Predict the structure of Alpha/beta hydrolase.
Amino acid sequence: MKKFFKRFFLILFIVLFIFSLFFYKRIILSYRIADKYISLKNHAWTIQEFNTQKSSSSMNYKDVIYKNTNGIPLKLDIYGPINQVYKSSPVLVYVHGGSWAYGDKNIPDALSPVLDTFREQGYTIISTSYELMKEKENFTKQISDVKDTIRWINKNQYSYNLNTSEIGIIGVSSGAHLSLMASYSGDDEFIDDGDLSNYSSKVKYLIDFAGPTDLSLLNTQDLNYDLTKIFASISNKEEVIKKYNPINYVSKSNPNTLIIHSDSDNMVPYESSKELYDKCVQEHSKAKLITLNSSAHDLSNISKDDIMDFSEGLLKFIIFNSPL
């Protein structure tokens, strides 16, 4: 009996030790990120600050051409891990917003604390570009561009020491719409570059930041000249809405999804994110919805409580989808 108890407690000790090691990295990571964000409690963001772009001085590789179709070279930036924690680095892909017609791959300064902390913990951040719409709708090309970014990562995993089993994607606004479409559609859908077509476009998880999930809910009445021309180029709106609505691609096999949206958004209705979340629940697809209460679509006038809510939710989501 004594031998039994000795063995039992030895096994219990080993299990607890392994358990503590498993969670130790996550606890340390959470602490470091929280420490970076704690100053935000005494800080009020403005739209100018949110749109401030991250300096390129910390990039490892700038303007890497990942493909060249339609005579337009498409580029990405690579922010490598600051510390070598893993044999191969997990990846976070950033897809910018801008109503499908504007914006670039420079990372907003507001995202720097979380992204820099993950780089310190061995992650690689890849910020990608896609062909912007000019005069006419071109969703197929843009979705293919995002999927080809993932395919390029798979093709070049050994050149940049990337772990292609640990790819996450974070999209903002129209970039979130493209990320959802790219992540929810199959490997054999939305193919543009033949050299990349044999590689996987799958991701492990995605973060949808106020992305349109039901195009029929968008208000297209008071658009500027460029966007009016683009939307006017659509001859069959019902067909386009059906083909490019992420909500139509929801299934149990979708990657884990975090949805962040303000119920005060006057550009992309909060209803679209609620519909996506409800559809994910219905289809038994893992999803979480974080509702902000104080900010507009561009996060102007965001409250301190909302900053902490979405920061905490974002960090928890990435940490518990990480290989730590």
Summary: DSSP finds nine helices and eight strands in the chain. The longest strand covers residues 162-172. The chain has one domain: 44-319. The mean pLDDT is 82.
